[in-house]
Amino acid sequence: MLNLVIATKNQGKLKEFKEMLSDIPLNIVSLRDFQEIDLEENGKTFEENAVIKAKRVLEFTGLPTLSDDSGLEVDALGGRPGVYTARYAGPGASDQDNIKKLLHNLKGVPRDKRGARFVCCLCLALPDGRIFVEQGYLEGYITFEPKGVMGFGYDPVFFVPELGKTLAEATTKEKNAVSHRSKALEKIKKHLIQYVKGKVEG
User: Fold this and answer.
1) Structural domain boundaries, residue 46
2) pLDDT at 201
3) What's the pTM?
4) Is 38 an active-site residue?
């Protein structure tokens, strides 16, 4: 079975990837399975960061690597936190710290001005030098207070109209059916399936 490195240490993110890739015969590992890899995310866009990560991990492990850079863009904040989503409240900030800062910065902003979207940019880097990049989006709005205990990150304050609830109130199945990550992954899976098929037949 072919190995695929998911370039993350985030257990919640890894779990989502494993579930969404379960129909492809792959042995999925993460950065937790290797010694420390220096990943400096200094890109100005989600795409730049995803490509930097995938190339670096491929170079280090020699294995096909799937990286993602994803984040939250809030209209009333001019698209912030954007590429700083994970460290919005500062380096080492917890999910609760980030949510607290976001809600504070949106204080007094009415419901109709709290539009936001999750963006996911995936990069698949293969040992033969090929690189594929795909993106996915999920539109919604920021609630006035956290609701739900599922998911991770900003899920408790991100309301999805098509689900009628926040992502943290949604089941894993409901979330995976609409998420920005699943939309990007559906596109990247086509490249991954072709690669696996080529290796098996080769």
Assistant:
1) 2-201
2) 73
3) 0.87
4) no
